[in-house]
Amino acid sequence: MLKYASILLILISFVSFYRTFQEYNILNSGNKVSVSVFSVPISCSESSKISKAYFTFYFNEKKQSKRLEGRCSINVGDKINLITNDTQDIFLFEDEDIHFELLAGLLIFVAGIYFYYKSNKNI
Length: 123
Description:
The protein is an alpha+beta fold and 123 residues long. The chain has helices at residues 2-29, 99-121, and strands spanning 31-42, 54-59, 62-67, 79-84, 91-93. A hairpin with a 6-residue loop joins strand 4 and strand 5. Helix 1 runs antiparallel to helix 2. The protein is elongated.
């Protein structure tokens, strides 16, 4: 059982690394765009562990959403500068910090390797 759990942790870490690597590339070489806040369905004051605060905006006639990430002063009508990739499916704040995601992915990977090693040692 531990062996399968460790493989699952390793797979989760690869998915996490893939997404974080995309975000890293966007922050370093993405396209800067300016968007107008269309709505704030869940504000910081309404946010919870389950429902995170976010805002919506339109970009190229497509409705998008972005978590507020602690930026509680954003209101409807505000112009926000974001960075996006070529496919325009990921939007990041210009100063968004992804170091925690990198560290979390690394820790999950290390835990998966450790538990896999432990499961094989006990056989």
